[in-house]
Amino acid sequence: MESGASLVSTPGTLPCYVAFSQLLGLTVVTMTGAWLGLYRGGIAWEGALQFNVHPLCMVIGLIFLQGDALLVYRVFRNEAKRTTKVLHGLLHVFAFVIALVGLVAVFDYHKKEGYADLYSLHSWFGILVFVLYFVQWLVGFSFFLFPGASFSLRSRYRPQHIFFGATIFLLSVVTALLGLKEALLFELGAKYSKFVPEGVLANLLGLLLACFGATVLYILTRADWKRPAQAEEQALSMDFKTLTEGDSPSSQ
């Protein structure tokens, strides 16, 4: 067990930003459910309501859970690196599975209704994000969780992993905004310009989506909020340096 002296202090304002991000994220999920319930009839796997499974699952998976997975290394600063990695990976798994359900729902709905697939900008972004997300998780698992990857290989890939993680999250938010606008135009048409209640609620939802994405990315880009290397990791790095050519597992 780590002694109190070895614990890393948390930057004063970091908990406030993390709490704010969670408030935004939960509000986004709640407002998505409210929008679908109040104006789109709710959700179900059969019939016309099957389509509504898609936006709800994508917001929960590729927005909220993906954002939380990215924040793991900022929130858990004193836990063992292996534990933090596992939690980071599991949150991404849950996000991927929920997003997969949403993807299956929309393709199945389109097939039943005879609608065309993959013709809109939203759908192109969506497929790109989904494929990149899967590849990112697969490569990340191979490098950071699956035993066998060297410290040298991990250290060379880590900057790309961090960059693509943030980029995929940003693309996910953009895709959600495109889908929200597309859904409003299809359903409301000319009424959208009349400030009808559904349009106003959905616009507010879009603003909150953007705010959640911006807050998560701000937390990630603050260099002084990065998780510092623990004593165990530093010792392992020093031991490894004596056996290799100077590789070290720098913190994420």
Automatic annotation (TrEMBL):
Its cofactor is heme b. PROSITE patterns: CYTOCHROME_B561 (PS50939). Keywords: Cytoplasmic vesicle, Electron transport, Heme, Iron, Membrane, Metal-binding, Translocase, Transmembrane, Transmembrane helix, Transport. It is a multi-pass membrane protein. The keyword Metal-binding applies. InterPro entries: CYB561/CYBRD1-like, Cyt_b561/ferric_Rdtase_TM. Pfam families: Cytochrom_B561. The chain crosses the membrane at residues 12-38, 58-76, 88-107, 127-149, 161-180, 200-220. Its main location: membrane. The keyword Transferase does not apply. Residues 20-221 form the Cytochrome b561 domain. It catalyses: monodehydro-L-ascorbate radical(out) + L-ascorbate(in) = monodehydro-L-ascorbate radical(in) + L-ascorbate(out). It is found in: Cytoplasmic vesicle, Secretory vesicle, Chromaffin granule membrane. PANTHER family: CYTOCHROME B561-RELATED, TRANSMEMBRANE ASCORBATE-DEPENDENT REDUCTASE CYB561. Transmembrane reductase that uses ascorbate as an electron donor in the cytoplasm and transfers electrons across membranes to reduce monodehydro-L-ascorbate radical in the lumen of secretory vesicles. It is therefore involved the regeneration and homeostasis within secretory vesicles of ascorbate which in turn provides reducing equivalents needed to support the activity of intravesicular enzymes. This is Transmembrane ascorbate-dependent reductase CYB561. It comes from Galeopterus variegatus. The lineage of its organism: Eukaryota, Metazoa, Chordata, Craniata, Vertebrata.
